[in-house]
Amino acid sequence: MTSAPHDVRTYAPAPEIYDDEVDLSDLLGVLIENRWLILAITAIFFLFGLTNTFVATPIYKADALIQIEEKKSGLGDLDINALFEGDTSTTAEIEILRSRLVLGQVVDNLSLEITAEPNLFPIFGAAISRRSAPRARPMVTVDTLDTPASLIGGQLTLTVLSPNTFNLQTSEGDHLLTGKVGEPNQTTFLSEPLTIFVSELQGEKGDEFHLGRRSRLNTIEGLQASLSISEKGNGSGILAISLQGTNPGDVSQQLNEIANVYVRQNVERKSAEAQQTLLFLEEQLPMVKKDMEAAEVALNAYRLEKGSIDLPRETQVVLETIVAIEGQLNGLQQERDKALQGFTFAHPMVLALDSQIERSNGELGRLNEQVRELPKTQQEVLRLVRDTEVNTVLYTSLLNTAQELRVVKAGTVGNVRIVDYAVTSYRAVKPNKSRILMLSLILGAFVGVAAVFARRALSGGIEDPELIEKQLNIPVYATIAHSKNQDRIYKNLQSKEAKQSILAIKHPDDSSIESLRNLRTALHFGMMDVKNNCIMIAGPSPTVGKSFISVNLAAVLASNDKKVLLIDGDMRRGHLHQYLGLERENGLSDFISGEVPIGKVLHATTVPGLTFIPTGKIPPNPAELLLHKRFKNFLSVLTSRFDHIIIDSPPILAVTDATIIGQMAGATLMVLKSGEHPMREIELSAKRLQQSGVNLRGLLINDINVQSQRYGAGKYSYQYNYTK
Fold it and tell me: Does the N-terminal or the C-terminal CB of the chain have fewer CB atoms within 10 Å?
């Protein structure tokens, strides 16, 4: 290679370029590059969803139908039903169904405040138990558990001693009693009685169960939360009620009990209404009968005194009208008295009755004016006859009504009926396994994609070579693709199985080696004005691929019938000798320190034309050795004996070794790992080299993902696709 006067190029950073345009191809490339991370996160979420479907407690649902009828009683021909007329409010009936009046009775009837669960292995124990045979499952049925108030909401432990005996203790381990199955067992706790009745016990000796008694109010609220009620259709009067729970048998039993209790309370309510009205009538009957008898006695006495007196036809008509109006007034007054038992004076029904009574009194007053114009004898007869007939009609009416109420009370069936009793669904309604798995996949994919872009945003690594060129005004000499073959070689190096592991020799058709051949061509024209034929390979930080590029670039240069010297200048952690299957001894540090002559540090390799100088013994002061004049003279001698000298150096930002070696080399190439370095790190590395007088000729972008670059890097991916 032709030598030239010392010419150090400096590159001023270009003005920052901000591009707000979203490149969809670049985003697609990022997703493809990180596809395994996305798949891994998606698989984790899917596994979590699958586990959830396995361990989640299945929820079953029972349904029933209740009809609210318009008629209050099943007695079709009795007019007494008119006493209970009124529009049925479906909303009100729904609230009654959900009330503590109904659900509290259900809790008491079924002892729902008692809880009894086997002590199983956490998380997976319940799932395994559900999938075992019913006879193999531990099971206990507790019909009665009366505990002191201090134990309500707490937990007791029941331990099986034998098929018919058990031990009961507190959660703290205090013994309470040893009881028998099928018998009431009593003891005292804190001077208060405790009673338990176990009707059934299934389990092996030593099996434990957790028993407890919740407060009645909490149990009712839990039942309310599981109960759903809605009307099927607007104004249909058909209520669909459903209940959810973990035990399909218990769910249907509880829902049927809710329906039965609701129907019973409806019947009892109607019977109570009839009883209340009957009591009112029985109080009125003796007084009305007494008035009727008094009126009859007065009429008979007057007729005996005055003789038989016949009323004219006109007076008879007036009498009949007065009797009818007074009978109507008595009926209205009774209805008003009954209404006042449930409503206030301002209720619309009471106000309407008051209005009717006022009109009837007005009509009665007009008729009384007509009576006053009659002769006194006719007036007195008319009054007595009127009192007798009115009281007789009223008494007869009340007597008939009381009899009908007795019949109604005895035959009350209520105005609601159960159309369909509860039936529990064969399959659990929760969890929805297919939906959970689908959501797990979608959520996992979303989180995976978000994690990829978040990691990219946080890392700040630059992947686009063109952006680096524009930002730093430094040319990119080559972009080197990621090589799976090199991954295998590196694993062999770590296991020390390979004697020689150079990718350019083992796989000369690899796409990354083709990139180095392009670099060889670029160096042929780009290094005509440098001071010597030494090329330093550097990088901002470790693990960017300097050693890989150094050894393979040297092999590519040597394949062109050139004499190439490869020097491992990283006397701290250098490992180029592993690629060549050689030892570290008799190397650069040994020569500079004067321990060995130059002839012993030049090691021949199996690659024709390639000579290698290892690091030698790891010295305590690598930078001081590099500053020694023997190193500079050493390079001066070797430049005349070889066509190319490749020096692998330590990281630029970690130690100062690279700047010392770079001052003596004719050109320096800085290796960057794709997506690894922020722009600030690259700029700082270039500035450190330039400030030390190092001739930074260009950049090498290593480990580019071919799939990602195929979509996002444009011109830099063409060579990979073609060589492939």
Answer: C
